[in-house]
Amino acid sequence: MSDARPASLWLLLTGLVFQGLSGLYGGGALAWDSTGAVLQMPLSLLEGAPFATYRIPGLILFTVLGVGPLVVAAGVWRGRAWAWYGTVAVSGALMIWIAVQVWTIGYHAEPPLQLIYGTLGVALLIVALRPSVRQAVGE
Length: 139
Fold this sequence. Notes:
The protein has five helices and no strands. It is mostly helical. It has one domain. The longest helix is centred in the N-terminal third of the chain and has 26 residues, at 7-32. 29% of the residues are buried.
């Protein structure tokens, strides 16, 4: 990757780091306190979901949508060719996460987290598909 990184690459890095940090925070909080009280998420939200507590979803969120995007961001920063595929995987995982969440527990407009993170997943994919990003990452 050259020293002159395109704006779209900075946008991608920002989105990946934001997702990674929020995944670490949210997933860590849910894994730590499986009742959801720390995040003010009642267990009643899990009605219809295959989980009785937030522990397993928290661990998945922490690893797949927390650690994963940060590893991919480091790869993008270093210009690793696998990082482009990693970005596509992270965006896909985020969109699937939100789709499954809406399917199992329904859509919740307040707070609009499902909308925000669903949009982020789509935005990451759109930015990753830009030729300038593909060229900069080395895909």
